[in-house]
Design a protein that fits this description.
This protein is an alpha/beta fold. The protein contains 14 helices and 18 strands. The protein has an 8-stranded mixed beta sheet with strand order 2-4-8-9-10-12-13-17. The chain has a 3-stranded mixed beta sheet with strand order 1-7-5, with no helix packed on it. The protein has a 3-stranded antiparallel beta sheet with strand order 14-16-15. It binds iron/sulfur cluster. Iron/sulfur cluster (SF4) binds next to loops.
Amino acid sequence: MQNGEAKFESAIKNSNFFKLSKDEQNFIKRLFKDYNLSFQEIRILITIANDLNIWGEENITHLEIKNNDTQNIKQAKKRLIKSIRDRYEELKNRPNSYKNFTTKEEYHPKGVKTQTVQKDTLGLGDCPVASEKTRCCNLLTLDAVESCGFDCSYCSIQSFYNQNRVIFNKNFAKKLKEIKLDPSKRYHIGTGQSSDSLMWGNKEGILDALFEFARKNPNVLLEFKTKSDNINYLLENEIPKNIVTTWSLNTPIIIKNEEHLTASLDRRIDSARRVADKGAKVGFHFHPIVHYENYLDEYKEIWQRLQDEFSSDEVCMVSFGTLTYIKPVLKQIRAREFKTKIYQMPLVDVEGKLSYPDEIKIEMFKNAYDSFKSWHGKVFFYLCMEPHRLWRECFGYEYKSNEEFEKDMIDSYFKKVEK
Ligand code: SF4
């Protein structure tokens, strides 16, 4: 193998080169030959070509500019790479448009298999994405099930678990009974981080075990977080008052294009209404709020609808958050055979992770909080996994520490459920 070929082969190895069409592959190969591209330049063009495909944007082969300067190949290469990167950045930095975007053809359900194993451990621990660098509520997460049957394109779970296997632990109920908690302390524990809390119903007796755990531990605020409408078990059984069921909500455009296999917005809100009608407390999470054309108008419709359809007494919390990526998740999304616009966005470093710049976040979170004026002081509002500096900008107040945030949250939740 010639030097040139060897260089090209090593540059495309372990990349998404073979996900590209033959035309795109040949285009990059030709540019490599014509301009003697470096290893890095080849990798950048592969990433750009793959991203444009996944985003449903124009094809990289259409971005070539005519080279009139055959004398100075180096200059010509610089101009070419710059024009391709400028167009790519332009597409990243403008608000997304889902107008001509569809995932229908490309999206193939991942076909998860459920498996029951015997484990002597119980997944109870700190929220996997919590950090001292962000203002965090010190949530404890309980893994009733490992991995999820829904398929939200932005979800960080995809980098934690094997995507096609959902694990139930035969010993879950027994291990839950063995948990020793400090009776003088109050806890906020959530089951919606490692999987959806309700989509599996009472499979393997998980809801029986969790209801009993809540009854036995009145000092625990147990949160079920869900995108499901599978509420039969909650309707058929008496819900302990220290169980709060919360729905993650998003606009219909994002649910349709980015939250695959989940319940529609109407079905989620209807489910929350039916659970609240039983006298149980509910809550809502807008996480991620996604920045796209007219996004605020569409979110404001939902924010107003909740205030029209629920009373503040029925609602424990409303939280806001947005897209925040770690590199392994972006790598996982880029390797998938589907279409998404979920990372077509200006990505900046935020406390070691990648997310929107502050100005976009302040616009979305300030509008979100201001849209719930009728519930201010009656419902607990919080930003999830966001830098300290955004709180005062968006909410007009801030916490000095995660402990102060946690205490205020737990006090507010218990006051509401004990009402
Ligand atoms: S604020 Fe969000 S990320 Fe932080 S601990 Fe709470 S739930 Fe986890």
